[in-house]
């Protein structure tokens, strides 16, 4: 099947572009000795786990189901962090995860005995209270009142027995200069305990595969922790694995006018690309321009009854018409993992494009997928 023959709406992930990203990440691993694991919260297309496993060290999870996914589908290192663990899930988590990271000393005290008895590596999440983000407050773990990590003022070193690593996750789509700033704060606030650790996890949010990313600075940060404290270094990017490696195909269903020309698509911001509303951001659309750049301006909206189900305003060289196919780019990350069926909106199909340009549909969804998740 060719790209133009796929149904809409449909996510299409390009295997060659995924592998391009993986080679960049693996290069960092080879040059530094650091380990990089896939953050499944951003991308968890298991059809590509065998390929990802060829280049990365494993997976990281945010709870039991992601942990099971990484364990069953990749079977390499399996890390987990959650703000709190459930008592009815912790035994299974311990049985399938080799690195278990706790968010607080109370959680550590509650569960570390079981984890250590099973031979697991125990980590503690710290909060360096160093915000380097602007405009993405919803994704800033160092914001005031954050749920994430232990602050320096609340640190209890007498409870560190059995803890072999520290973990911080503060970045969101950021470059390595922000990592360097954060690392300075980590050393300033928690440096006295780093010599007694065996490993440190830099978390995710590193846009390593972006064209302007400063990889030498990243590698200097890694080597600094290795040489100064003799630590094994982990990174857990999610977006960097699938950055700019996927598309969302959609079709124009109808045209409408209300002070601006409006095109209704067979997709939805709230159901199929929720970060458009949460971040917010304007997703790239192939062949389009900014408002005023091209002669024909349209507001692109979804099918749902939510008034704010609007993807954005785009300009085109020619007027849109019903049946036109539009292709949104960078749609592999935080899309498939966040889809929902609000309003009974069908989920997009998922397709894989191989290195020869041939496409195959990996999964299609129907009414039963909507009905089956409801009581």
TrEMBL record:
Q: The Orn/DAP/Arg decarboxylase 2 C-terminal domain covers which part of the protein?
A: 10-331
Q: Which cofactor does it need?
A: pyridoxal 5'-phosphate
Residues the record lists as binding substrate: 239, 275
Q: Per the UniProt record, which EC number(s) apply here? A: 4.1.1.96
Q: Top enzyme class of this protein? A: lyase
Q: Identify the Gene3D superfamilies for this entry.
A: Alanine racemase, Lyase, Ornithine Decarboxylase, Chain A, domain 1
What InterPro entries does the record tag this protein with? Ala_racemase/Decarboxylase_C, De-COase2_C, Nsp_de-COase, PLP-binding_barrel
Q: Which GO terms describe its molecular function?
A: diaminopimelate decarboxylase activity
- Domain of life per record: Bacteria
| Key words of the record | Decarboxylase, Lyase, Pyridoxal phosphate, Spermidine biosynthesis
* SUPFAM superfamilies xref list: Alanine racemase C-terminal domain-like, PLP-binding barrel
GO BP term, example: nor-spermidine biosynthetic process
What Pfam families does the record tag this protein with?
Orn_DAP_Arg_deC
CDD domains in the cross-refs: PLPDE_III_CANSDC (cd06829)
Q: What is this protein called?
A: Carboxynorspermidine decarboxylase
What lineage does UniProt assign to this protein's organism?
Answer: Bacteria, Bacillati, Bacillota, Bacilli, Bacillales
Please state the gene responsible for encoding this protein. Answer: nspC
């Amino acid at each position: 099947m060719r790209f133009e023959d796929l149904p809409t709406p449909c996510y299409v992930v390009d295997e060659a572009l995924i592998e391009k990203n993986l080679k960049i990440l693996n290069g960092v691993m080879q040059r530094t000795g650091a380990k990089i694991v896939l953050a499944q919260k951003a991308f968890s297309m298991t059809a590509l786990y065998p390929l990802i496993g060829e280049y990365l060290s494993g997976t990281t999870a945010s709870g039991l189901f992601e942990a099971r996914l990484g364990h069953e589908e990749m079977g390499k290192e399996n890390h987990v962090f959650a703000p709190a663990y459930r008592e009815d899930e912790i035994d299974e988590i311990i049985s399938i995860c080799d690195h278990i990271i706790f968010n607080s000393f109370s959680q550590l005290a509650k569960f570390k005995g079981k984890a250590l008895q099973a031979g697991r590596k125990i980590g503690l999440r710290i909060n360096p209270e160093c915000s380097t983000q602007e405009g993405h407050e919803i994704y800033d773990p160092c914001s005031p009142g954050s749920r994430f990590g232990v602050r320096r003022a609340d640190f209890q070193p007498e409870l560190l027995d059995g803890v072999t690593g520290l973990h911080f996750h503060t970045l969101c789509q950021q470059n390595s200069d922000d990592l360097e700033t954060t690392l300075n704060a980590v050393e300033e606030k928690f440096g006295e305990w780093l010599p007694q650790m065996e490993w440190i996890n830099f978390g995710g949010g590193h846009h390593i595969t972006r064209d302007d990313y400063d990889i030498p600075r990243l590698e200097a940060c890694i080597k600094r922790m290795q040489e100064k404290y003799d630590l094994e270094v982990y990174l857990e990017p999610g977006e960097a694995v699938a950055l700019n490696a996927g598309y969302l195909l959609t079709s124009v269903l109808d045209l409408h006018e209300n002070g601006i020309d409006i095109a209704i698509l067979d997709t939805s911001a709230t159901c199929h690309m929720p970060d458009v509303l949460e971040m917010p951001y304007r997703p790239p659309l192939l062949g389009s321009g900014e408002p005023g750049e091209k002669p024909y301006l349209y507001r692109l909206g979804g099918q749902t009854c939510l008034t704010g189900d609007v993807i954005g305003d785009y300009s085109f060289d020619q007027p849109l018409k019903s049946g036109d196919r539009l292709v949104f780019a960078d749609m592999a990350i935080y899309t498939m993992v966040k889809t929902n069926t609000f309003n009974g909106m069908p989920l997009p199909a998922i397709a894989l494009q191989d290195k020869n340009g041939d496409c195959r549909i990996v999964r299609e969804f129907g009414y039963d997928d909507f009905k089956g998740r409801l009581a």
